[in-house]
């Protein structure tokens, strides 16, 4: 490996082969949405608490006392206040990108490129960026091309938010996005609090009672076993959820079955080279190959350039019929 982190990394061979087979699934985190104008976890948590203050059900003094808590703990408190007083926090106002979706050019570039990398998507985000396919902006031959994206209406992707629909078969459904933690389409079902996370990822699959099956973990087991995942928009602050999701899914995987190889796009400054090397070794323990890019020139906006380069190099294809058949047969094995 070169001692310099590249601005645009090369596409790993395993990732290229997965794209050609149609088994590549982009797994999109908050970093992509933040780049596209959505709030950080901290901003979302503070926004929810401020909504409680605006409703006279919380005070600035109380908020100051918990300012050092983690975003998830803050959101848990806000949701508790919301439930106690019958509030209805407008999470759409808090989560949706500044200025909306249509006129957010950076967001449209990011998610247009992501849309080219897969036919099926998995996300832990609540926003609607992945729910619509973003069309190419038409080419202009005029001296003053339009500054806004004037492409036609987007194609709507099937949005999967119900745990009952978290099935291995839906990983082979084109033009759909699985919202693992819920969606703004149903704010009451969004996984936000510590209790929500524990319930969503509770490992009850060892029980003989089939009604105790955790569909989320079964879905993730199939995802990591049969597909190649490209993580986009995850960072050090997401290590907890990544460890939890991947390790829980792997616990139920037979050692006789080959493990899929997964990848993660992550940005670093040039002086973070040794950190990048250490995390490369760490992620390898989770069957994830780190794909680093350099942030020095454009900071996280460099991810936009990387995604556009990858979308050109490895455009999505439909899964081969033989691949789908092999996956279906694996589910029938004792």
Which descriptors apply to this entry?
334 residues; alpha/beta; 13 helices; 7 strands; 10% strand
List the helices and strands and how they pair.
Blueprint: H1 13-21, E1 24-28, H2 30-35, H3 41-54, H4 60-65, H5 71-85, H6 91-95, H7 105-117, E2 120-123, E3 158-160, E4 176-179, H8 194-200, H9 215-226, E5 228-232, H10 239-251, E6 262-268, H11 273-284, E7 288-294, H12 302-313, H13 321-332
Parallel strand pairs: 1-2, 1-5, 2-4, 3-4, 5-6, 6-7
Write down the secondary-structure element order: HEHHHHHHEEEHHEHEHEHH
Instruction: State the secondary-structure class.
Output: alpha/beta
Task: Write down the domain tally.
Answer: 2
Q: Helical element count?
A: 13
Q: What quaternary form is this?
A: single chain
Q: Radius of gyration from the CA trace? A: 21 Å
The tally of strands reads 7
| Overall geometric form | globular
First-to-last CA distance: 42 Å
What does this structure look like?
This protein is α/β, with parallel strands linked by helices. The protein has 2 domains: 238 residues; 52 residues, no CATH class. Helix content is 41%, strand content 10%. The protein is built from 13 helices and 7 strands. The chain has a 7-stranded parallel beta sheet.
Brief rundown of the structure:
It is built from 13 helices and seven strands. The protein is α/β, with parallel strands linked by helices and 334 residues long.
